[in-house]
Amino acid sequence: MGASSRYWNIWRISLKTEKVRYKYCLVPIAQEFCYKEVVNANGSNVQSALLSHFHSKNSADTISRAQAGLCLRCYVSDPILKACKKIDNLFSGEKHFNYQDLLPYVLNDDGKTLVILDSDRKNQLVLDKNGETRKTAYKFFSVKVLQTFDADSEGSMSLDNWAYLQTKQNPEIRDFLSEFGFQHLSDWALLNRARPKQLQRLSVRDRQIVEVFHAVYRRDRISLTRQFGMKRCPDPSIAQLEEMLSYLQQQNINTSVDLMKQLQQVAMQLRQYDIWSYREPLDIYDPDTKTYTTRADLSSDPLNESLVEQQEILEFFHQQVSNCLSNAIEQEIGFRMSNLRSSKKYAVFAPKLLTGLQLYYYEGMSLKDIAPKLGMTSWDQARRILNPGELLSKVRALTAQKIIEKMLEKASSMGLTKIPPEPDYLKTLVEQIEAFVDAEIFTEAAEEIRAGKSRSMNSSYAQAIRLYCNRCSQYVGVN
Q1: What is the mean pLDDT of residues 429-456?
Q2: Residue 385 pLDDT > 80, yes or no?
Q3: What top-level branch of life does the organism fall under (predicted)?
């Protein structure tokens, strides 16, 4: 399987986490789609395959298109989060906000709703349970990123860089920052404040135009500011434009095109170097190692060191939860299958274990109803073979154990503890992790089992069980 787990895990806002208000969530639908549709693809081929699915014109294949889009929405959630952190760093100091205040504007994807684009990519369409589409007033920013991304254009950015750029250009974020004094500059403000480093990137002719603009506009602006305290940069007056034209003609510079339009075109180029449309890639190719490394300027972080460590640990933790849950389910079901095969009394039911779990977690059937479908004699026999309550208990214990091991390794690598850890550190860590996984996963899963005939299997645990059964059915041939 060549696809990265970034295609089926999404960063989402979470109100449950107080200090870092987002978490890393498994999206079973996206994971299942990747396993089915791009199982043989590798690296960039995975992304190309998903983009091809998502932008397909096949009107009869809307569900597949939406699922491919969901995979891509998971993928772009990572650069969206990074862009918010970068903006926070750029405006560090006494700014009275942090990157988490920016997240609601761009990290607004629920990771569940199936969405496609209309034929001209102008509208987001939501799919209902019957596969019918409808327009929606609520727009996912992640879909907007995909909506405007053109992988086929010459010199196009990578999807990571495009998502990063679009986040920094997001109008709602710019409006939010303007409340703190970080306003989006007008064309005249950009030209007025143009620095030598920016001018070096312009053509000789365009540099001359800016120099003339400075000679006239900047001179008058300084005078007006001193006299009247003017702060905003107004449009250049007719008298100023005529004076600029006179200077340009003296330097033999072609002025056949309207000067106002020429100035606006130069301002557009300067805007590309402004904070909101900075177009350098996130990664730089290292010819020595033949790999891409993160730009040095992106790694600088003026945040408090302890807060950075805390954020890093929490992000790592959320990533491990879904991975460890999937691994624990695979391990425990495999162990139960092995025990059944080695049992003289129940070996005949080993091939039926996955079918029983599918009936239980897909159809919501009771053990009593499942028993005759699997050729079992009674509810009690079905309980001994399937025993969803015992399976849940063992998966819970193994998931917590795996997360604890991963977190200890992470803490040790960061110098926060040693191996083996101090007893008090370990005790606190175990208690916190067990409480978290219960609140996020296993309490809801246990309530589903206790619900009886009215149960609705929609918990994260139930989805993970179904996903595992699907994979086994597809690749092992169990039905």
Answers
A1: 81
A2: yes
A3: Bacteria
Rounded to whole angstroms, the Cα distance separating 171 from 175 reads: 6
The DSSP code for 12 is: E
Instruction: List the chain domain ranges.
Output: 5-182, 187-273, 306-475
Q: Are 124 and 115 in contact (CB under 8 A)?
A: yes
The pLDDT of residue 281: 46
Closest residue by Cα to residue 182 from 272, 102, 108, 263? 102
Give residue for tokens 């999807």. Answer: 159
CA–CA separation, 30 and 436 (whole Å): 24
Give Cα 226 to chain centroid, integer Å.
Answer: 48
pLDDT in tens, 390-401: 999 999 999 999
pLDDT at 180 over 70: no
pLDDT tens digits, one per residue of 334-375: 999 999 999 888 899 998 999 999 999 888 888 888 999 989
Q: Which residues pair with 23 in a beta bridge?
A: 12
Q: What order do you get walking across the sheet with 133-135 strand by strand?
A: 115-117, 124-127, 133-135
Token couple for 238: 């007719």
What DSSP element (H or E) covers 124? strand 124-127
What average pLDDT does range 158-183 have in this prediction?
78
- Residue range 137-163: average pLDDT? 83
State the angle between helix axes of 159-169 and 171-178 in degrees (0 to 180), rounded to the nearest 10: 40
Three state DSSP letters for 346-373 = CHHHHHHHHHHHHHHHCCCCCHHHHHHH
Instruction: Report, in angstroms and rounded to the nearest whole number, the Rg of the chain calculated over CA atoms.
Output: 29
Contact 35, 1 (CB under 8 A): yes
* More confident call, 97 vs 309: 97
- Is residue 71 within 8 Å of 34, Cβ to Cβ? yes
